[in-house]
Amino acid sequence: MLTTELDSDGIATVTIEMTDRPMNVVDFPLARALADETAALGARVDVRGIILTSAREAFIAGADLGVMAEASARRCGFAEAKAKVRVWTDSLRRIETCGKPVVAAATGTALGGG
């Protein structure tokens, strides 16, 4: 799902490629993986900055609508919906506060939450 390379200038490139999907989508495993990876890179003294990019023609197609449809079909309650949203917001906050500049090199399409 993620590969990371560190160049000689201390710039880490984190490449997203969801090989089990036709396009990259934001789902809970990806959100957690990106947050974990940027936090780990943020803690390293040899990393000066982080670039997020895609190995695909498109960057990210947005949120995984299958997850949303499944929750809707089950009529998940407020507490469950709030917990799921919390995963997204906590992951984004961890990326934002990792301690290093983080930029997205969006190749091609970036839709919805992508």
Structural write-up:
This protein has a single domain, classed as 2-enoyl-CoA Hydratase, Chain A, domain 1 (Alpha-Beta Complex). Strand 2 (11-16), helix 1 (28-42) and strand 3 (49-54) form a beta-alpha-beta unit. With 114 residues, the chain is of the alpha/beta class. The protein has three helices and four strands; from the N terminus they run E-E-H-E-H-H-E. Helix 1 (28-42) runs parallel beside helix 3. The protein has a four-stranded mixed sheet, covered by helices on one side.
Give the gist of this structure.
The chain has helices at residues 28-42, 65-73, 78-96; strands spanning 2-6, 11-16, 49-54, 102-104. It contains three helices and four strands, in the order ββαβααβ.
